[in-house]
Amino acid sequence: MGASIGALRVQATSRLRQVSPAETQHNPVPEHSPVPDLRTRVERGGAAKYHEANAAKGKLFARERVRLLVDEGSFVEDGVFANVAADDLPADGVVTGSACIDGRPVCVMANDSTVKAGSWGARTVEKIIRIIETAYRSGVPMVYLVDSAGARITDQIDLFPGRRGAGKIFWNQVRASGSIPQVCALFGPSAAGGAYIPAFCDVVVMVEGNASMYLGSDRMVEMVTGEKTSLEAMGGARVHCTESGVGHFLVQDEQQALDKVRAYLSYLPSSWEGTPPVRDVVPAPAGTDLGALVPESERQAFDMRRYVKGLLDEGSFLEIHALWAREVTVGLGRLSGEVVGVVGSNSMFKGGVLFVDSADKATRFIQLCDAFNVPLLFLSDVPGFMVGTAVERQGIIRHGAKMITAVSEATVPKICVVVRKAYGAGLYAMAGPGFEPDATLALPTAKIAVMGAEAAVNAVY
Length: 461
Prior knowledge:
Elements: H1 2-15, H2 21-26, H3 35-43, H4 48-56, H5 62-69, E1 76-78, E2 94-101, E3 104-111, H6 122-138, E4 142-148, H7 156-159, H8 167-176, E5 182-191, H9 196-199, E6 203-207, E7 212-214, H10 218-225, H11 231-235, H12 237-244, E8 249-251, H13 254-265, H14 290-293, H15 304-311, E9 318-320, E10 328-335, E11 338-345, H16 356-371, E12 376-382, H17 389-394, H18 396-409, E13 414-423, H19 425-429, E14 439-442, E15 447-449, H20 453-460
Parallel strand pairs: 3-4, 4-5, 5-6, 5-7, 6-8, 11-12, 12-13, 13-14, 13-15
Antiparallel strand pairs: 1-2, 2-3, 9-10, 10-11
Helix pairs in contact: 6-8, 16-18
């Protein structure tokens, strides 16, 4: 065996010949920039005019967003030299890598809108797929800093249809959902298929005035349907945070968006296998009389958010979806330093009645808490689900069933507090006694019934 290998080496060596100086002169070895110079060029991003245009809109450079988000010096970039041979595509328009936030490992993706408006090429897609796979395999949160015009139509053969094409991004997001936290901060557009990156995340933070999500541009909509609209009216940050429910947090600038990402992650474990981080105990706000916050008359509305803030550790409540389906309040907070998820009826809005959107809002939040081992606290003041032709056509029964299913399937500790009323199927949706909560607490103001007194009288007489 050894002799045979030796003979092959001799044969191979004998076929090699010395290259003459003349041949070298006529066929020079290609010169490349030193690696540090290449890195510097890549890290500059796109042309200066694109940086200036972004700055005029109050937008930061993608690498600056990453720097402000993660712990100082912790970011390690992946694929920095992707498409380096193309002078106008540094890093192929996306920054990916691993870092730490508050000392905990995370993976990060950030679109660079100074490079072809942050659009996707084949290597962009591969880098995004790879970093999600890394996060999922490692069991660490995945953070998406999105600012992208979508796929490059000119590159669609390379990036769209293959086994590791753009669809693989969403497949990986779905696979990772509930296994690791996924959070998106949206600083600019998220167009066409790219709009699904935020949609598959646990929560989406949107910067008012700059962030937008849409499947088709305003020009495409006009061409296809004849409707004349604008990107802001169709898919702006306020629309998605108040009407569609795709956005969870509406913020005024990019620093607020990054702060919200950090705050959200501070309540969750790195993966489904962990437990939520425990903090030092902070007492509830002094002088808050919870009993005084609840009116005796159920006809009189009160703001459940004040009740929640008076119950939890002071300053710990992070409300989610604060501007959408406001008849139910959901969010993360701490009780004696331990993380809890709160689902509360809010009679200040639509009397606290559950509608299609509020059922969806609560359902998704309950599933989030169940996935990441966050105990659930239900604060009930619910007249039940809405009735009538409009909601029946919208599928109120189907959406209500989803909420009740989520409550039934949740395996985390559950406590139901009937603050004032729990009528009809509202009792079921708020983890009433039949849904095996760890405890059901009825306050002195509590009423549990199939329906309210007046409705019952009308039904019987």
